[in-house]
Amino acid sequence: MTDLPPLRPATRIVDAVHESLREGILSGVLPPGQPLSVPELARRLNVSRSPIREAVLQLVSDGLAVEQPRRGVVVATIELNDVLEIHEIREFVEALSARLCAERIDADGVAELRSIIARQEKCVAKDNAAGYFQTNAAFHEAIGRFSRNSRLHDILISLEGQMRIGLQRVSSEGEQRRRGVLEHAQIVNAIEKRDGDRAERLMREHIAKTRKRLAEQIRKARGEVAA
Amino acid sequence: MTDLPPLRPATRIVDAVHESLREGILSGVLPPGQPLSVPELARRLNVSRSPIREAVLQLVSDGLAVEQPRRGVVVATIELNDVLEIHEIREFVEALSARLCAERIDADGVAELRSIIARQEKCVAKDNAAGYFQTNAAFHEAIGRFSRNSRLHDILISLEGQMRIGLQRVSSEGEQRRRGVLEHAQIVNAIEKRDGDRAERLMREHIAKTRKRLAEQIRKARGEVAA
DNA sequence: CCCCTTCATGTTACATGTAATATCATTATT
DNA sequence: AATAATGATATTACATGTAACATGAAGGGG
């Protein structure tokens, strides 16, 4: 008999709860600082406390919530500071991701990247900020996937999740988005040519721009407080 | 009254169990593939199953164990492949760590790094391989700490833990260790001079050497299998 | 001899019970 | 009025119960 695809394991409640809470946090329904009370979530989701507790602890491991022992878990608050920390790391791990991607991607992968960029260009043309962010995330996720390093992929996903909590604090102008999509296109060109050095350098510079804007924003905010 | 440091929270059983299992895995008492049966560990450690289950799931999040839904958790097996994956990432995140360290360390920090190197030199002189690995880990951990980026520090610790499981698969000769400690000294020199560019480049090259050795080892192992 | 069924055993996943503890509104005290 | 003591309420951390499920050995049929 020809091999059937393996059955997906019966969805466990804990996974469903984790997914639901994660969505709630990333969409803003559960805002930063919101307590994640195990008994209350159990009542609300109509399951027992065990899978809730496990899911909540998962979120802590994901960096999407923080635990104060004996005082419970709350949705993580991601300050500008944290977003800067995250971009310091992204500057390097996304650069690695781009390099590995250039070495390991296939033609289908390149096509997928080009299609994401096409969607993103439409968002820029229509001045659709939300769509831009979404396709931006898809672009970086795809590059992480094609770099064929599962731990690297996990790190990128973890940073992306935390970033989304803090993202409302970061402004972006249409002109920046216009340049962003151009940079993406250049990165894909380098990847297609298998030029790992260039893909790495372009990606690093791409992220560094945002990092520097963040550092500047923080410097200004600090200045206002000090003054 | 002057502020006393906050009391450490009464040690929770779950934390004690997590620590104990982590030590067991890193020391090799719990070898790769070893099942982590919740009821059995509960009997052995004389506590109920709840804190055991939480601790075991923590280990999964740490990358030190792997879960097969409905089939339990076993200690992670770190193949040469995985060690290579980890070094691909370390090449970049350790380079970042060295750069940030150069920008942010203080005089006490530099003194600590020099003292670690001094200990490491003794290990090399006495051909003490275990001591070399331990001081090596201490060196990279300290640099991670002085880079003052908590998420970066967490990533480095996570990779280090997984590496230690797989480390027995990696050989190291006295000559390599001799060069390693020299490279460490050069990195600290760059850090002391606040030369972030140079610290980053030296660290990247330092890790890349190990990465390339690993890739070579894997290529040879594959060749033998194919032949 | 190989394959399938059956059954015994042990585990996971979830549910629920409860003591110790944290929080907070209210009252009592200076 | 500000601070401290009190008590009501809710939560965490841990313990324990149990149905569904996985595993592996023993037995039966091809």
UniProtKB/TrEMBL annotation, chains A, B:
<keyword id="KW-0804">Transcription</keyword>
<keyword id="KW-0238">DNA-binding</keyword>
<dbReference type="InterPro" id="IPR008920">
    <property type="entry name" value="TF_FadR/GntR_C"/>
</dbReference>
<dbReference type="Pfam" id="PF07729">
    <property type="entry name" value="FCD"/>
</dbReference>
<feature type="domain" description="HTH gntR-type">
    <location>
        <begin position="11"/>
        <end position="78"/>
    </location>
</feature>
<dbReference type="GO" id="GO:0003700">
    <property type="term" value="F:DNA-binding transcription factor activity"/>
</dbReference>
<dbReference type="InterPro" id="IPR036390">
    <property type="entry name" value="WH_DNA-bd_sf"/>
</dbReference>
<dbReference type="GO" id="GO:0003677">
    <property type="term" value="F:DNA binding"/>
</dbReference>
<dbReference type="Pfam" id="PF00392">
    <property type="entry name" value="GntR"/>
</dbReference>
<keyword id="KW-0805">Transcription regulation</keyword>
<protein>
    <recommendedName>
        <fullName>HTH gntR-type domain-containing protein</fullName>
    </recommendedName>
</protein>
<dbReference type="InterPro" id="IPR036388">
    <property type="entry name" value="WH-like_DNA-bd_sf"/>
</dbReference>
<dbReference type="InterPro" id="IPR011711">
    <property type="entry name" value="GntR_C"/>
</dbReference>
<dbReference type="InterPro" id="IPR000524">
    <property type="entry name" value="Tscrpt_reg_HTH_GntR"/>
</dbReference>
